[in-house]
User: Fold this.
Amino acid sequence: MKKQNDEAFLDERETLELREKLRELAVEQLPGAQEQRWAWMRLEARLLAPKDASRLFFPFLRLAGWGVVAVLALGLGASFWKNGIMERPPIIASMSPSINVVTFHAKEVNADVIWATGYDYLPASSQIR
Amino acid sequence: MNPDLSAIVQKSEEEPGDALWVKKARAGEADGWAELHRRYYVKLWSAANRIVEDESLAEDVVQESFVKAFKEMSRFRGQSKFSTWLYRITVNRSLDAARKKSRRQKWLGLFPLEDEKEDSPVREAVAPEPSLSAAELGDYRKALAKALKTLGAEQRAVVELRLIQGLSTEETAAVLRCKNGTVLSRLFYSCRKLQSLLRKTYEETK
Assistant:
């Protein structure tokens, strides 16, 4: 259909007739004065109800909730940063019950490894019997 | 008392004294909001109803629009007319509501109730007439209401604001956040479609 970018068609007789009929239809559908009063009463109750203390409480509750989430996320992040997400913990990685072999996968000696084994140097994947 | 045409058709200028009531409303005074509600409720309701095609949904949309305007009154800087700003809030909410309604109807259409299945005798008993009778078709308004339903929500918005309520092309474009050309081309297409459908309706009744 042809596009129209000027207002010329709005002055055509057919368009003016259509407009009058549309306006008559619109007016038939409009709410009356009583409905308008009720609508205002509902709105007024909603807009102008006094704020009570409980309504102030919920934003703080929401803030506290997000605070807990943030602390947990930071803690998890710090744990991953310290230990590495994919790395095994530095102490005991596996135990073989039959031959009582403990395999360490520590990449570096740290205080936990020294405490567990009594050794102050362990190459990677050392085995202690 | 039923409202007359002047309840929705725009005067060439903003109602005198809007600035005073806007100032009172901004200060949180109840009489400011009461007067603004009195001036704009019917116009906004008409626009919302045209877009969503549901009277009770239109009532909800207008209520929510006034609540939003109340909450965001501090953000209204006066760069546009207050009426334009209020219309924009209402039309945006109406278009959102119309989209949600359309999606819901599509989903509901996929899962018809037992008594809506084709072979059910209940369906035959309550099914609406496939078309209006000759007498009803002679009623121009019923035919017009039916024809309006064939337009999209945005087209109905343009018809309501520009043609029915008489906002200028510039104001309509400001409310809908589009260009003047877009308003005119949507309006042109909508008018032609309505006129063609009404012509066809009257040819079928002869």
